[in-house]
Amino acid sequence: MTNLPSIKQLQYLLAVHQHQHFGRAASACFIGQSTLSSAIQTLEEILGCQLIERENRSLMFTAIGEDVVQRARKIIDDTLSVKELTKSHLSPLSGKLTLGVIPTIASFIAAPLYQLSQQQFTDLELVLNEDTSDSLLDKLEHGHIDMALLALPYDTDKFHTQVLAQDHFCLVHHKDYLPAKNIEDFNLLPKASVFLLEREHCMTGHALSACNLNRSSCINPFEAASLHTLLSMVEHQFGVTFLPQMAINAGILATKNMLATPSQNDAYRDIGILWRKTTGRIRDFRLFSQMLESFLKQQCRLTTDE
């Protein structure tokens, strides 16, 4: 039979590629550096080509080495999916499930979601990982998390994506700061009166798009780094902002003299769940998504008591 690379050798290769250092890669794999180096050398002998150029304490992957890394990553993903498939079949929704969530969702659902998961899936250990959309997609691609919960639209073509709920935006202002009622074109709000988060936060982009704001003169140049800072500006009657219904329902305005008015143009962001197309845990993820969909629709329900 043809002498083929082992899964372990490919895992070691990926570790070196990730850490760009033999010592750190060996530590991450819980083996000695000499063992790792020997495995990579054996892999190169099996393949008949050099994958890594070594010089003193530096290294560089060759062009063919980069191609092998990409193939190796897919092989490892496919191998893991086989293991996940059998585990999911024998014991659905058991063990650990790591769910990545962006901050403007995690802030409002983390605790109740933990509680609900413990109640409905007693054998499941749910682990939440809060991070930005870009970072979560990178973690998902490289297998560091199992699923990701994001606000859409976003570039998610690499993954299976399913919309679970619509989270409508509300116009939020101090009770004594009265913008025009029933306004349909938010660009007509007073000059520099609309406060938003920094552009790095996807909620800002979604609010601009959903509310048809074109960064006209109504947008204040100040960009808040957190919701706390954002609401502080609004509470002191400097202007208005837009918050998703999920935040309103979670009580973010409970102790503040502010009002939330549903937008007149049905502005909303989609909340979607993502997972790798190669996963073997599709059965698990679909079951979990069904629970999550019902939960999110409750969290995003429109209220009429403002």
From TrEMBL:
Pfam families in the cross-refs: HTH_1, LysR_substrate
Species per Swiss-Prot/TrEMBL record: Pseudoalteromonas arctica
Protein name, as recorded: Hydrogen peroxide-inducible genes activator
Gene3D superfamilies per the UniProt record, alphabetical: Periplasmic binding protein-like II (3.40.190.10), Winged helix-like DNA-binding domain superfamily/Winged helix DNA-binding domain (1.10.10.10)
GO CC annotations on file: protein-DNA complex
Domain of life according to the entry: Bacteria
GO molecular-function terms, A-Z: DNA binding; DNA-binding transcription factor activity
Family the entry assigns: Belongs to the LysR transcriptional regulatory family.
Keyword DNA-binding attributed: yes
Keywords tagged on the record: DNA-binding, Transcription, Transcription regulation
Residue stretches making up the HTH lysR-type domain: 5-62
